[in-house]
Amino acid sequence: MPAPNHIGTTERPLRVAIVGAGPAGFFAATALLEQTEVTVDVDVFDRLPTPYGLVRGGVAPDRPKMKSVASVYAKTAEHPAFFFFGNVELGRDLSVADLMGCYDQVLYASGNEADRRMGIPGEQLIGCTPASVFVGWYNGHPDYRCAEFDLSCHRVAIVGNGNVALDVARILARSYEELRATEIADHALEVLRQSQVEEIVVLGRRGPLQASFTPAELRELTGLRHARVEVSTEALELDEASRAHYERARPRDPQRQVVELLAAIASKAPSTAVRTVRLRFLVSPVGLVGDERGRVRALRLEKNRLVRDQDGAVGARGTGDIEELEVGWVFVSIGSRGKSIPGIPFDEQRGVIANVEGRVVDVETGEIRPGQYCAGWARTGPQGLIASNKVASAQVVRRMLEDVAQGRVSDPAHGGRAAMTTLLRERGVRYVTFEEWKVIDEAEIERGHARGAPRSKLVRVPEMLDLVEMKRRGW
Ligand code: NAP
Fold first, then answer.
1. Any bridge partners for residue 46, and if so which?
2. Pocket perturbation via mutation, ligand 1, pick of 67, 132, 158, 161 by most ligand atoms within 8 A of CB
3. Which residues have a Cβ under 8 Å from the Cβ of 455 and sit 6 or more positions away?
4. In angstroms, rounded to a whole number, what is the distance separating the alpha carbons of residues 241 and 131?
5. In this structure, which residue's CA is closest to atom 9 in ligand 1?
6. 310-325 in b/e burial notation, b at 16+ Cβ within 10 A?
7. What residues have CB less than 8 Å from 456, skipping those under 6 apart?
8. Which of 336, 339, 367, 396 shows the smallest number of beta carbons within 10 Å?
């Protein structure tokens, strides 16, 4: 049903801006374009000239099936009511007021771009990097193309027990031949080709039953051609409460499956693989030790035991038992949080945009900011898999449509795509359309084929813009 003020009709479509062309943004665009209650125009903005967010820059290059969801998003982008404004950054090229001046509703799906820190001495040493930098680097994200990793050491550590930690371990453990066949960035392929790393130690602060990684990712790690996974049987001894939890869990329970998989790994005869991924539990880094050049030489680890609070939540408590583990590089993979964008209320404690069920609210008063919404990790923090965004984004879209039906839209005086296009042109912002992105896409695929890979990414924004410009001029 159209809104009382006729917004959402063919004559006056509902104008929606989505900030962020990742999974949450694209699933929201799809939900908006597939519904039949109101006529809608959807403009999706991204700070990069390339769409797909984490699918392009986060999902590991050796997971082509997971990346294939991009073809679903590309189909959405073909809808006549869809438009892509790539290379346009909120906070740099546009303000929230600019967006609110052009659109009835704005949905922030800008993800999580800040890393969590361990907060321990030595974290600033050379050789200690957030895992997200490594992930962005091997995925050819322009922000991280200049990152440097010295893999001339024999042992590296990964702190954290989530799926990102396993992605990093897998990429470090794969052979050059395996990596070359993926869409890994050329610069990363060359560095990994020279890698001397033989042992990759993954550190979990709690026990195996509390690990965040999922059975499918663990299974994938065990299937590597040139690396073996090791875990000691002692590491798998569950404390009394964990054992009770494990025994109560149904066979399909992911935590139970993880413990079973780990037990199978522990009982395997040692192989002669070139690389070893060693999974350790109940240890926390308490400091990093540097050498005379200010580079990481070792990690100080404290053994933990599990403790439970009165609500039954399981935590890790240090026992005072400290060891030193010689390592040449440390990847910190302990999760991420949102980055505050000027003009958007931010919940500092949770690291997300302040919201109630996807409606943006004022931090102090809790009052709803009409016409502003958020979805994906910008709304919830980092949780769930790519596909989880489909349902979650559709739920936020439902609330947006409820607000339209009740006339709770901002209805700016000037508006929509035409006004936005003029504004960006006046500011000299070179936005990239979806058609122009396809030029980049094709060039990357062609470059990839020359390497025997599905794609070889362009990693510099100016290079992408030049390519688009040359095509436009017919050069
Ligand atoms: P995550 O799943 O939240 O895992 C973070 C890990 O860091 C946890 O094991 C956590 O331990 C640990 N940690 C936090 N603070 C720590 C500290 N100070 N010291 C030591 N350890 C600490 O985060 P993520 O791995 O970044 O993944 C984010 C999301 O992306 C998840 O939903 C994940 O499933 C998803 N993802 C999926 C895939 C895939 O499907 N292939 C790939 C990558 C990412 P505690 O549990 O003890 O807090």
1. 86
2. 161
3. 183, 444, 445, 447, 448
4. 32
5. 161
6. eeeebebeeeeeeeeb
7. 183, 185, 186, 444, 447, 448, 450
8. 367
Residue 431 has pLDDT above 90, yes or no: yes
- Measured in angstroms, how far is the CA atom of residue 164 from the centroid of ligand 1? 6
Q: Which of 135, 159, 164 to mutate to test the pocket of ligand 1 (most atoms within 8 A of CB)?
A: 164
CB neighbours of residue 62 within 10 Å: 20
Question: Which of 163, 171, 286 for a ligand 1 pocket mutation test, highest count of atoms within 8 Å of Cβ?
Answer: 163
Judge contact between 17 and 107, C-beta under 8 A. Answer: yes
Ligand 1 centroid to Cα of residue 58, in Å, is 14
Across 188-217, average pLDDT: 97
pLDDT above 80 for 395: yes
Lining ligand 1 with CB less than 6 A are 118, 159-165, 167, 204-206, 210, 212, 217, 284, 333-335, 382-385
Q: Could you tell me what percent of the chain has a pLDDT over 90?
A: 89
**Angle of the 131-138 helix axis to the 163-173 helix axis, nearest 10:** 50
What is the average pLDDT across 330-334?
98
**Summary mean pLDDT of the chain:** 95
Read off φ and ψ for residue 41, nearest 5 degrees.
-115, 130
**Mean pLDDT, rounded, for 184-205:** 98
- Record the tokens describing residue 450, joined without a space: 């020359």
From atom 7 of ligand 1, which residue's Cα is the shortest distance away?
334
Query: What residue type is assigned to position 179 of the chain?
Result: L
Q: Which region among 272-276, 302-306, 375-379 has the lowest average model confidence (pLDDT)?
A: 272-276
